[in-house]
């Protein structure tokens, strides 16, 4: 069963930016906003060397890790080929201008 938590207003996250939510159970979760105002949430650690994905560059539905340029799909947490690996993704949604996260 999911437990939805209201995080912030969409406008609190810059387009092509992120916001980090600290959780006791899952650690840091990065919530991303795309140029199309879609929201995605993944564990804030790249599967390669644990780089902070929240500090990466958002493009389309991907983020590029700031450490070694791995591209991570925001909807699944999967690294884009030729890289292999995955970071945990979390359900996120936008309702009435508010960002919600399921943990």
Automatic annotation (TrEMBL):
Whether Iron-sulfur counts among this entry's keywords is yes
Query: Boundaries of each Rieske domain copy?
Result: 5-101
For this UniProt entry, which residues form the secretion signal? none
Residues crossing the lipid bilayer are none
InterPro entries on file = Rieske-like_NirD, Rieske_2Fe-2S, Rieske_2Fe-2S_sf
Please give the PROSITE patterns that the UniProt record associates with this protein. Answer: RIESKE
Keywords recorded for this protein, A-Z: 2Fe-2S, Iron, Iron-sulfur, Metal-binding, Nitrate assimilation, Oxidoreductase
Protein name according to UniProt: Nitrite reductase small subunit NirD
**Native organism taxonomy:** Bacteria, Pseudomonadati, Pseudomonadota, Betaproteobacteria, Rhodocyclales
